Amino acid sequence: MDCIFCKIVNGDIPSYTIYEDDIVKVFLDIEPMSPGHTLIIPKKHYNNLEDIDMDTLNHINKIAKEIYTLLKEKLNIDGMSIVQNNGCVQDVLHYHMHIKPYYNENKGMSVEEVFNILKNE
Ligand code: 5GP
Ligand code: ZN
């Protein structure tokens, strides 16, 4: 299947991956809305919210909670929105959850800089 996120899961396309397990891969959005803009995707291909099963969704939510804590601790984000697009507003047709950070003061950081901060234990 010609799916860009399946290729990221397989490692055919590189990504700034900040977490992964058997079920999900978590990586930085290539065109971030703000520093730390993160995508959580299931490793298995589901098109959208209609297709995905509850166990996988529950796991994604658990990971979203952990990523929120990580971004608060490492990037000092002031707010965060979860966005998950479907239908005419969905560009990549592999289910993904956006974690979109907000800052009281604008921060200019490249995706690579953010990655290095997040990966620094
Ligand atoms: P949506 O489908 O919810 O509209 O958004 C798709 C998101 O995937 C966009 O924010 C876009 O920047 C991101 N994206 C598209 N292609 C790639 C890619 O190859 N790598 C990464 N890291 N993000 C991507
Ligand atoms: Zn896919």
Outline of the structure:
This protein has 121 residues and is an alpha+beta fold. Helices cover 31% and strands 21% of the residues. A 5-stranded antiparallel β-sheet has the order 1-2-3-5-4.
General description of the model:
- The model has no long low-confidence stretch (mean pLDDT 96).
- Helix content is 31%, strand content 21%.
- The protein has one domain: HIT family, subunit A (2-Layer Sandwich).
- The longest helix has 22 residues, at 54-75.
- It has 121 residues and is α+β, with helices and mostly antiparallel strands.
- The chain contains three helices and five strands.
- It has a five-stranded antiparallel beta sheet with strand order 1-2-3-5-4.
- Bound molecules: guanosine-5'-monophosphate and zinc ion (ZN).
- The site of zinc ion (ZN) has 5 residues, from helix 1.
- Guanosine-5'-monophosphate binds at residues 4, 13, 15, 27, 29-31, 85, 90-92.
Q: Please state the average pLDDT score.
A: 96
Ligand set: guanosine-5'-monophosphate, zinc ion
CATH class: Alpha Beta
Helix and strand sequence: HEEEHEEH
Distance between the termini: 36 Å
* Strand segment count: 5
Strand content: 15-25%
Predict the CATH topology.
Answer: HIT family, subunit A
Number of helices: 3
Q: Structural class, from secondary structure content? A: alpha+beta
CATH superfamily: HIT-like
Rg from Cα = 14 Å
Low-confidence stretches: none
Domains, number: 1
Helix content: 25-40%
Largest sheet: 5 strands, antiparallel
Shape: globular
CATH architecture: 2-Layer Sandwich
Strand order of the largest sheet: 1-2-3-5-4
